[in-house]
Each structure stands twice: as C-alpha cells, then as structure tokens.
Amino acid sequence: MEELANEALNKAQKVVDEAEVYLEKDEGLDIDIQKDSVGFAKKVHSLGMGIRVIVDGRMGFAYTTNLDLIDETVERAADSARANLPDENFKFALPSSYPKVKDIYDKRAEYLDVVEAVDFGKLLVSTCLEEGCQPTSGGYAVGNKDSILMNSHGVECKNSSTVFSAFVSVNALDGERVSTAHESHSSCQMELEAEKIAKKACRVALDSRGGGPVETANMEVVLDHQAAAGLLSTFTQAINGDNVQRGRSIYANKDGEKVAADGLHIYDDGTVKGGLYSSRGDGEGTPSQKTTVIKGGILRNFIYDIYTAQKGNILSTGNGIRVSFSDMPSVSLSNLLVEFDNYSDMTEVQEGCLVTDVLGAHTANPISGDFSVEVMNAFLIENGEIKSPVRKAMLSGNIFETMQDIKGLSGEKRQLGPFILPQLLCSSLRVVG
User: Fold this and answer.
1) pLDDT digit string (tens) for 57-69?
2) Burial of 307 (0-12, 13-18, 19+ CB in 10 A)
3) Residues 310 and 361 in one domain
4) Which member of 71, 214, 279, 291 has the lowest number of beta carbons within 10 Å of its beta carbon?
C-alpha cells in the first residue's frame, strides 16, 4: 500500500501545487440472518484511493477503485480543483508525531473463516428460540481495515483497525399481538457473545408483553444506552465547528459559558483504548487527541477539521473524519465520552419511565433542540423499581434544556456508535400516552 500511495503522490505533485493521497483496504465477513436461519454468508473486500489536490488555492477531489488508473484519477482531481472557487482556508496537514492507540486491532480477524462466522449466527438464532422468541433479522460482521495517508508536506499516517459487530431483532407473542425488541454490540476485539446478545433482546421483548397506556405527564425519564445515544446525536450537531461557523448552533458565541449540569464532562477522544473510532490520526493526517468539549457544565471547545480550524484561526482537533476513500473528510465525532462527577442510582427514581430506545431521533430540530420521538420498550418506574411495560408513548422535550439538569446512572457504560456513556437520568421530560 505504501508503494502505491507514494506512486500516486509523486504523479500528483508533478501537475498540482499540493496533493494528498488516501489509500484504504477493507476485508471482512458478513453474515445475514433472516427469520430463524442464516440467509447468506460472504467475504467482502475493497481497495480504493482518494486524491485531494490544491491548484491555485482551489480544492479538487477524485477517487478510484481501479489502481491502474492513477494518472486519470489525478487529472480528474485537478480538473475538479480548476472548476472550484479559490479559498485560502484549503490546507493539508503538516508533519507531526502520532499517539499510540491501544486495543483497536485484533489479529484474529485475519484468520476468522466463514464457518466460524456462520456458527456465531446460528448461535444467535438458536438462543433466541430457546428463550421463547422468534428472531426476525440479525447479522454478524467482521471488518479489518488498513489505511495510509500521505501528502506533499511529508505527512505519512498509517492506521489499522478491526471491528466485530452483531445484532438481532426478535418478536415475542403477546396474545394476538407481538412484542418486539433488538440488541446489538460492537467491539474492536473478538469478544462478542452471541448468547448474551440474544438473551438481552429476548428479555426486553418478553418483559414488554402486556403493556398498557401511560397517562400523559412530565416525569423523570431514564434513558437506556440506545435511547441516550439517539437523543444526544442532536446535541453533537451543536458542537460541530462547521455548524457553529454557519450560525447553525445554539452554542455559537457561548464558549466559556455554563450550558450543562455542573457535574457533567464531555470529551471527544480519538485515542480511547479500544474505542470504535480511535486511530492514530484522522482522515486528514492530523494526530488524534482528546478534546474537552464540556467541563463541569462549562462549554470549553468545539470540534474542527483543518478547513473549519483555518476559518477560525485555530488548530484542528483531529476531527476531519472520512466515511471511506470515496468521500472527502469533514467535521465529525471520534469517540464521545460522557462522564459525571457523581452517579445516581435507579432506586432514587420514585415515579418515572425507563426508555430502552427511541424512534425518530433524526427528526429533532438541530438548532432549537426540540424533539418528539416514539419510545421503544418503555417501562414505568415506581419507588426505584421497574414495573409495568408501556405499549405506546411519545417522548418530547428539548435536548439543550435537558443537558442542564441531567445525571448519569451508576452501572455499565457502553459504546454505541461514537458515544461512550452510562444510562442517563433526565429530571423532567414529557411522556405522552
């Protein structure tokens, strides 16, 4: 890979002012579950290159999966630049040292064969059936990604990571109706337990049977990990440096002000041990780092890539993230850590509602923070104990107001997507029956 990246960079530098080459190789297995059987199992492989160039202050980009066409790809990137408008903020990363990031690569991914992956899928299915639930869909995937980024300033950043992920959705008979639930887990290490994933999905589905309506009221709400991650996605749009600069963030011009609960700390950290989005450097070659976003409820920083950092006359926070070689980097999260000085306990909730997941979090207003979502697998809480299930309900509120009086619950922290967080306790949200 290094030889190919070097070849492309040398060719690009002959025809443009500055160049950057990003080469990415993905290999893995993908197992699909439909109802109570493994639908298909396949090996996946991709290799592609993305080339960004700067010509007379103009940025251009092109990509290819045919590495015999490097010359043509360079020319397309140059043509793209010439058609663009000049912008003094177009820059590439400068040479720097990179941090060591632990436990993001498991060599066992290289040797896992289709038979082992199929067996994992079969165990998911059989465990669901043994627990009295019908699996409706699921999957198991293993990915092994290597990438290298080089640019004309002498930057060379290599990253290698693995990911193992599994999920299952189930139905449980509930009289003439069915109760549904799902569970998923992802890790950089080969540590997933099919039985544990299946049993948790089944437990939630079975416990949700016989649910009734809930009386509309403002009440304390415990957001389980899935629900918390869903609602916090709206908050994260407000700490995106691009949104801040475009006036699309409620936090614009509020750095240094109190915006959240006193004991709340939020960090974006691309160096977390075993983090799903940890790496030595981001998709632009900027070293990964830990950025304090909120400290003790005070807004401290936003996250930036090189372009938005240049516009703000500051430094990139290492958040120029690429989805793949076919996309240009843009501002996005690495791992978002949600931490508290002190943690509460479910026993402190006298009358409230536990929400396992939410549907429609993407419809929240990213500027105002208002949301109205459907709750999934909700349960009433009485005197600190989880009681009767709720069949149908909506949850509404404002995420930015919620952040000002939010608590973390003691117990397991999980990583779901970029979020690493505990269950969250919201003092008052509107539960609509």
Assistant:
1) 999 999 999 999 9
2) buried
3) yes
4) 71
